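Researcher: Let's continue the batch. This sequence belongs to non-specific protein-tyrosine kinase, and it's 757 residues. Same format as the previous ones, please.
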Amino acid sequence: MNNPSVDIGNENAVQNVTLTDYIRILYRGRWIILFSFIFVFTATVYYTFTTDPVYEASTTLIIDKSRAMENALFDFNSFGNQSTHITNQIEIIKSRTIAERVIKRLELSNVRDSLSLFHPNDDGEYMTLRQMVNIVRENMEVVNKKETDIIEVTYSAPSAFEAAYTVNTLAQEYADASAEFNQGEIKELRKFLEAQLRKKGMELSSSEDLLKEYQERERVASLDEETTELITRLSQIEAELEQSQVMLQANLQMKNSLERQLEGRRETLAAEISEISTPYIKTLQEELAKLVAEKTKFVTAVESQAQGVNKGFFLGQVAQYESKIKSLKQRLDQEAKKLSTSSMVRDPFQLTQELVSRIITLDAEITASTAKINTLQDVVAEYNAKLEQLPNKVLEMARLKRRQLVDEQTFVMMTKRLEETKIQEAGQRKEVRVIDEAIEPLFPTKPKKKLNLALGLVLGLGLGIGITFLREYFDNSIKSQEELEQLGFNILATIPRIEMSKVEEKLEARMSKLGPMEGKRIEARLITHLDPKSPVSEAYRSLRTNIQFSYVDEKIGAVLVTSSGPKEGKSTTSANLVIAMAQSGKKVVLIDADLRRPVVHSIFGLEKDEGLTNYLMDDISFEQMIKPSIMDNLYIIPSGVLPPNPSELLASEKMKALLIKLREEFDFILFDTPPIIAVTDAAILSTIVDGAILVVSSGHTNYDALVRAKSLLDAVNTRILGALLNGVEVGGMYGSYYYYYYHHYYSKPGGKKKRRY
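Model: Same format as before. Here are the structure tokens for non-specific protein-tyrosine kinase:
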């Protein structure tokens, strides 16, 4: 029969991956998977049961934008949509300012010592305000209920009480801050008007006393009709002038208040507000001031003479002025809102928009008030000039009367304005309402024990399986006989991994029957002799049979065993193969041709000093070289003394002559040679034997190394009988086949069952 050729071109053949392949990969990585699972799951259990519990408590708030009055300062985007308004409120709740208010309130509470925020650390150090603020902000979660104006605030803490108490405090502080902020502007206006009213009341009382004293002293009861009309008209104008001046001061104070609020958000915005205004806004402000001045001048000049038809004309003109002024104010308001939403004044939370709009509107009102005051002052000057023409005695009486009328009218108008402001302040209702206060949770939310354990289980297995497949991806070793077949090798046998623990048990049982010296010399690797009915022994007998029948037309009498690299089981294979040959009745000799690291003598418990190299150097005779073994038909030729030139000795003519002589004496000759890639010894011997066997260690032999070994043997025209896949996992995808057939063929040692195929 011709030598089966090895087709290296098949090494790139596409192999269909089956479920069996995946199962085999998982089986090979079972210890990695098990270790990964134990490690991850143990770490998860430790973390789950040693981590401090975390409790969460939640409160719900409703932001009722429609209930807040027009100048609620928390309505920073009143002209925007409601979703933006709710988003702004969420950012306010998360702000540093609210967190600081919460910390201060908690510190003043009677439960301060129960809160972890105020406990010292292991070193006895207390947290700073900034650290506590960061903790409060990190442990809160604020979400908007979908398609509602309801906000849910959740807080996490080490205890159930602290979680509930802190989140309730947070909600209350936010509600209080909202109310204070909304009422701040009106409250400042009310305080200003109250102060001005008290002052005006004192001035009115003083002017009345002065008028009375003058009338009593000069014995003047009243003024003539023309003078009285002049003084009445002048007092009305001066009262209006004084009221305008008071409201101008109020607007200036309100503007200052708004600018102070802006300083906390953008330091330079208040100082540069006049620069932010566009030229168009400035033009509108100038037009408004001009219209107000014209209206004031027209009213003061014409109102006293408007009678009958003239009165209708007067009212019509006033209505036109008011309509134009109202239109200009609306346009100013629109431009202010557009500007406040532009990138020029937008901050990260969009909290300055309404403030900017209010400041720009107030600027317009201040400009208009200034123009009105200037006009009224001009009118007052004209009336004063007329009064100067009166006699001195009448003039003094007129001045005192005018002062008293001005103070009286101003006092009445300011009283009315103050009452309106009080009503407006009282009408300011809270925009934020607490729907549900937080209650203490019954169970901690973290750690989630069941979830953590489930994740630990899944992650442990997943990590192990992932590592297994990753290792498989980068593993370039030969693992299955299919891979050898793809390379074109004839598979002589598949040898399961020897389970040394079971072999050692059998060895101890045999030692009680054998002599003490003989028992010690038996190596556990000689499983074919020690346990002839084991699956491994059956595999070696299959190897023996396949070698015998690999070439039917010619006898295979001399074979060498080699491998691509060290520690692939070639010496164990050689020892068990010759035992299997000897068990079949053949006279067999095993030659340890590894003249660099010989191990055959140690397997059989022999000395190596008188062996192959000694014979080749004519130090000993042929009979002295050949050593008997544990079996009658099996003989061993140890390596002998290690020479400095192993390759030259193996290539010598005397080596060839020795092989011819051995063929005459033995039925089967087996050479145990060193790895083919490491040295040339195996390649040299392969030219004089009948064939070579390549031992491939499953999961150990490198794919490229095996191809290289085959190339080296082909280079010297070696007949490769086939490959032997060694060390297949017992119980694995291939080892299980041996156990399956073995345990259904044998019941107990010596007993048989019906064969199953």
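Researcher: Any comment?
Model: The longest strand covers residues 55-63.
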